[in-house]
Structures are given as structure tokens and as C-alpha cells.
């Protein structure tokens, strides 16, 4: 899987090549290829992955593999969380985004989120594809319309503010018909809105904001 280069990652976060932070979490890291692009900027790199062979590969790269129900309950927070092409293959995307909010370092923490548009959510259960339990409401059919919808409606209502967004080709593994596929990714840099961050600091039981 290829999403962005080191230079594109730096431009998205508006950081210089020497910038360093404490912790990165890459959700659904796959074989760790994209993780490696980001890892040079962090003292500790944490990952999640459901595929056992991929987990072994991530461990060989010396990344710290966390359980898919464990990463938001570690007792510490992350400077950057990446969620790349996972939102449309997640059974509970709303819960995922809420757990990410809780897990980011206050004020300075950032979420890098990539999603293929047009948005077509499906999850694989027992070798079959089905609709996820939670549904992200999406208006518009064009790529540009859905980027606007995500930015001004979906993410905002969930407590995030968009700092940057770009369009990048997503090269993903193919099948028996094609060696690989090139899809249109929207890559967002998100931060938790100030009002929501204050609520997160005050209580452990909040609903999504207005």
C-alpha cells in the first residue's frame, strides 16, 4: 500500500525533516510500509493490525503491536494517530473516531485520516461483505462534494476541525484481475476542536457535539 511519501507527510503536518515527537499510532498498519514513512519522526511507534502475518512483519520492524481493543486504553496519549483507508472498512466508525479523540495529546495531537471517495463502506465478516453497524451519513456523489461534506458536516459534528486536506492516488493490492488498483484518496489532517477538548478533559462520558 502506498498513500504518501515522506515529503508529502511533512507538508501535510507542516513540519520540517528534523521534527520529532514522542508517540505515533498507526491504526490498521498492514505491512508497515506507510508506517515507515512516518516512523522516523517519533521515539515510539505503535501499530494495530488484524492479519497475523502482517503482525509478525510489523514486529520484525520493531513496532509495538497493540490489540484492536487495547490501543485507546494504554494510559498514555499519542502525538499523531494515522487512520489510513480504514474508516470505510470499519464496523463502528463513530466509536473509532471518538476513541481517537480521547487518545490524542491535548491541543497538539493530530489525526491523519485517509479515505477513498466516493465513500463506499463495507466490512468483511466470515468471507462475506456487508454494511457496517454504524453509518456515516454522506451527501453528494462527486469527490469534491464528499470532501466538503466530510469537512463541514461529518468531522465538525464529531468534534474535529480540518487543518489540511489533499487528494492523493492510493495504490492498493490487486486481485486475480489486476495487479494493483489506483483509487482517489482524500487525506485529512484533523485536530480536536477546542470546545470538545475541554469536555474531554472534564468528563469521561460525552456525546458527539452539536
UniProtKB/TrEMBL annotation:
- Known InterPro entries for this protein? METL9, SAM-dependent_MTases_sf
Keyword Methyltransferase carried by entry? yes
Q: Which Gene3D superfamilies match?
A: Vaccinia Virus protein VP39
SUPFAM superfamilies, sorted: S-adenosyl-L-methionine-dependent methyltransferases (SSF53335)
Which keywords does UniProt give here?
Methyltransferase, Transferase
Q: Name one GO molecular function term.
A: protein-L-histidine N-pros-methyltransferase activity
> What is an annotated GO biological process for this record, any one?
methylation
Q: Mind telling me which PANTHER family this protein's record contains?
A: DREV PROTEIN, PROTEIN-L-HISTIDINE N-PROS-METHYLTRANSFERASE
Q: What is this protein called?
A: Methyltransferase-like protein 9
Amino acid at each position: 500500500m502506498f498513500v504518501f511519501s515522506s515529503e508529502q507527510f511533512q507538508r501535510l503536518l507542516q513540519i520540517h525533516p528534523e521534527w520529532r515527537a514522542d508517540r505515533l499510532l498507526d491504526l490498521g498498519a498492514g505491512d508497515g510500509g506507510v508506517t515507515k514513512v512516518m516512523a522516523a519522526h517519533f521515539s515510539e511507534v505503535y501499530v494495530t493490525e488484524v492479519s497475523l502475518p502482517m503482525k509478525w512483519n510489523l514486529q520484525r520492524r520493531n513496532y509495538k503491536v497493540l490489540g484492536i481493543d487495547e490501543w485507546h486504553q494504554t494510559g498514555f496519549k499519542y502525538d499523531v494517530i494515522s487512520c489510513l483507508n480504514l474508516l470505510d472498512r470499519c464496523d463502528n466508525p463513530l466509536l473509532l473516531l471518538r476513541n481517537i479523540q480521547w487518545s490524542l495529546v491535548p491541543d497538539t495531537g493530530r489525526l491523519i485520516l485517509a479515505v477513498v471517495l466516493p465513500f463506499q463502506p463495507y466490512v468483511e465478516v466470515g468471507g462475506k461483505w456487508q454494511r457496517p453497524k454504524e453509518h456515516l451519513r454522506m451527501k453528494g456523489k462527486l469527490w469534491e462534494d464528499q470532501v466538503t461534506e466530510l469537512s463541514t458536516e461529518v468531522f465538525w459534528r464529531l468534534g474535529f476541525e480540518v487543518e489540511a486536506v489533499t487528494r492523493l492516488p492510493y495504490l492498493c493490492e490487486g486481485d486475480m484481475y489486476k495487479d494493483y488498483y489506483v483509487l482517489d484518496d482524500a487525506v485529512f489532517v484533523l485536530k480536536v476542536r477546542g470546545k470538545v477538548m475541554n469536555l474531554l478533559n472534564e468528563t469521561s462520558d460525552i456525546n458527539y457535539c452539536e
